[in-house]
Amino acid sequence: MEPILEIRNLTKEFKDFKLNNINLKMDKGYVMGFIGPNGAGKSTTIKLILNLLKRDSGSVKVLGLDNIKDENKIKDKIGFILDENYYYDELNINEIKKIISSYYTKWDDNTFNKYIKDFNLPRNKKIKNLSKGMKMKFSLAIALSHDAELLIMDEPTSGLDPIVRNELLEILYEVIQDENKGVFFSTHITSDLDKIADYITFIKDGEIVFSEAKDDIIENYGLIKGSNDLLNNEVRKEFIGLKESKFGFEGLIKDKYKIKKLFNDDVIVERPSLEEIMLYFTRRSINV
Predict the structure, then answer these.
(1) Cβ neighbours of residue 17 under 8 Å, at least 6 residues apart?
(2) What is the CATH classification number for the domain harbouring 237?
(3) Angle at CA 112, nearest 5°, toward 106 and 114?
(4) How many Cβ atoms from other residues are within 10 Å of residue 37's Cβ?
(5) Listed GO molecular functions (predicted)?
């Protein structure tokens, strides 16, 4: 089966930052969470996928098509929801719909009207007068009204209240029940991905740290807690990151099944959250 998104050796260099040799592959029927600290390269990667930035080298294929040569075909088949509003502020929902619908070959007014009603969006209200949550729902209604096969989302839940965030996640969960669709979801709110993601790709300093099934990550990584006297130079090498205090240590290890060999039963082993995994990869050593 052709991947819905495939990135190979993607590179983009700026004066003070380099997206370096990015590789990832995503199949249909899944949600891929794209995580990393601020400035890691998430938005740059998305802009390169959408051909909003010119890449230095590498390739991007969406639905088996080259994202530069086949840009128009691709954009007819995908929906994108970015962290900023790119609609004309002085126009209302109906006016924006009339403009945007003409660009898509599979636009469906009935689907659009259904989502506008379901989202309780005011058709005659100017975009500038909509709340951030309403703007996000409107963007999602647009993306879902032309039978998009891939949704690309850049921080879609940032700044939204918990109720609206949960509504958005429920909608995405429904979308992904169609195994011919996929969602590429960039966010720093990892708790959202705990709920709906199938795969997690973690980027740091412009490089991919890992891209794995979420269940494998949660199952294999371990958050270890114990006494400081258990630590020595060899043991420290096993940890991705450590947090030490006068009360003991807490650290992240990639293979928690090594723990018995290292510590026997002298430590507590817990299942880490995605947020904790990201924290320890980002801040390798923490003393408190």
Answers:
(1) 39, 41, 44, 206
(2) 3.30.70
(3) 130
(4) 17
(5) ATP binding; ATP hydrolysis activity
Q: Give the residue with greater pLDDT, 124 vs 61.
A: 61
Cβ atoms of 184 and 200 within 8 Å: the answer is no
Q: What is the pLDDT at residue 132?
A: 82
Tokens 């990151």 appear where?
241
Distances from the Cα of 179 to the Cα of 31, 143, 144, 168, 199, angstroms: 11, 17, 15, 19, 15
How is residue 65 annotated by DSSP? E
Q: Which residues contact 169 (CB under 8 A, 6 or more apart)?
A: 157, 192, 195, 196
Same domain, 226 and 211: no
151 Cβ partners below 8 Å, 6+ apart? 78, 79, 80, 81, 143, 172, 175, 181, 182, 183, 184, 185
Into how many domains does the chain fold?
2
pTM above 0.85, yes or no: yes
The predicted structure's pLDDT at residue 174: 84
Instruction: Report how far residue 243's alpha carbon sits from residue 227's, in angstroms, rounded to the nearest whole number.
Output: 12
Domain boundary among 215, 246, 278: 215
Enclosing domain of residue 10: 5-215
pLDDT digits (tens, 9 = 90+) for 22-60: 999 999 999 999 999 888 999 999 999 999 999 999 999
